[in-house]
Specification:
alpha+beta; Ribosomal Protein S5, domain 2; Alpha-Beta Plaits; 2 domains; five-stranded antiparallel β-sheet; four-stranded antiparallel β-sheet; 5 helices; 11 strands; 37% strand
Length: 205
């Protein structure tokens, strides 16, 4: 049985702050769906904290290999002392479609690699703890195309299976887009494939 749920955050957290030897680490977590959103959040934080020294981050988008996109960035801190500890918290909270940015103001005292790892890890953890984490289902979207005369057949299945309609265009030729839990997707697709004169195809998300 393949897993078709994932955990993510609903909205950005309230800013968190971790201090160590005069250095300040501000932590932010954002829900993201693509890398453009990642870039936009980082650019905004760079404007907001234009006097900071480092804007280190990690993100993960997607649900499973090979479609998982993730990245960790040390932004000038020693190798693997910032991005990977942040990414480690994304993994340990088992969340995805999330970006965590930790903004550092240098306080004049070097923390050493161990101190940095601890600071970035702790700030990332605090940012995620400040978020509401929810479980969502991984859905597959299908578009069903049919003539108006077959409307009742299609709607009967949608009603019986309690399917979620996300879009519909009901004219002479009708199109309805439905969103189905991944684990039910092939069953639902085959029901519609077996209805005469009704066409169903999966949408690329």
């Amino acid at each position: 049985m393949e897993n078709d749920t994932y955990k993510t955050i609903v909205k950005p957290n309230d800013e968190v702050l971790f201090k160590d030897k005069n250095s300040k680490f501000f932590g932010y977590a954002f829900p993201v769906k693509n890398e453009d959103e990642v870039k936009a959040h980082i650019e905004n934080l760079k404007k907001q904290h234009h006097n900071a020294r480092h804007w280190c981050y990690a993100y993960q988008i997607g649900f499973e290999e090979p479609n998982l996109i993730y990245r960790a960035n040390d932004d000038g801190e020693p190798n693997n002392s910032a991005g990977m500890p942040i990414y480690g918290q994304i993994q340990s909270f088992e969340v995805t479609n999330v970006l965590i940015v930790v903004v550092r103001y240098f306080g004049g005292v070097k923390l050493g690699v161990g101190g940095l790892i601890n600071a970035y890890k702790t700030t990332a953890q605090m940012a995620l703890e400040a978020c509401k984490i929810v479980t969502k289902t991984i859905n597959v979207d299908f578009v069903i195309t049919f003539d108006y005369k077959n409307m009742n057949k299609v709607m009967r299945v949608i009603k019986e299976k309690n399917l979620n309609i996300t879009n519909q265009k009901l004219e002479l030729d009708c199109q309805i887009t439905i969103s189905v839990r991944k684990k039910d997707a092939s069953t639902i697709a085959s029901i519609f494939e077996n209805i005469y004169e009704v066409e169903i195809k999966e949408l690329d998300n």
